[in-house]
């Protein structure tokens, strides 16, 4: 049972507008083989929401017509959607860069034994969650045994060329274990590189540090520990105006498992849809006839999570 979250409203976050669309981020569903404490999607093994074949076709139709260069696939565990591989192969055929936001342990799920080979064959970029290089910290946040499986998955990906070949990108994702801002991405990347290489012989391209958002499962955890208001205040006090130019919602469009669109994945989880002509919800297909450049972005206090300190987004710290 999750604690009831306070309503996140805008108490002063600056109004910002969209730029040119560079990334289509698609949530293929909330089913996941893990139930991480930091998850802003509240994903887990019991979730059944998943994108249908028809909606996957809508995504491909949009990619073909718009020529958006990057398709960013997320979930849950996006690979568990039965149409994941079709979407990946056809998107690559359209010339899109494809990013798979992978929890690593999914590579060992039943029926996914050839997943790593498939990703390498399609030259999919893997962005893998590894919130620490220490077993105790990872298992505390993601579940017992997750660290060991994650290391095995990284070794498998390395053996296929990920993190070692120029055309097989492997980025790792760090997020704090509690209500604190991430440390310097540049400095932490050096530590990750030294520790993972020294302990396990693992190579990767970049470390991306992402701030935890006070929404869904992580937000509920904050409420249950009496830390919600203090954490939101921490984010607000660390806000930097210079980060506004680089926040991901300016160039990214988020699509939920039903095909509706949002300014970002966090707004999707809060039910704050893309604002178009006063309509309550807009499907992706309808944007083929609409230019959303300059469109105002729906903001609330959770947005300070993207502008606090060094800034944060799906691509890690801002401006790096």
In short:
With 320 residues, the protein is of the alpha/beta class. The chain is 31% helix and 11% strand.
Description:
There is one protein chain. Strands 6-5-4-3-2-1-7-8 form an 8-stranded mixed sheet. It has 320 residues and is an alpha/beta fold. It has one domain (23-307): Alpha-Beta Barrel (TIM Barrel), CATH 3.20.20.70. It starts with 22 loop residues before the first strand and ends in a 13-residue tail after the last helix. The radius of gyration is 19 Å and the shape is globular. It has 10 helices and 8 strands.
Secondary structure elements and pairings:
Elements: E1 23-27, H1 53-66, E2 70-74, H2 84-93, E3 97-102, H3 115-121, E4 125-129, H4 135-142, H5 146-159, E5 170-174, H6 185-200, E6 206-209, H7 216-224, H8 228-237, E7 252-255, E8 261-262, H9 265-270, H10 304-307
Parallel strand pairs: 1-2, 1-7, 2-3, 3-4, 4-5, 5-6
Antiparallel strand pairs: 7-8
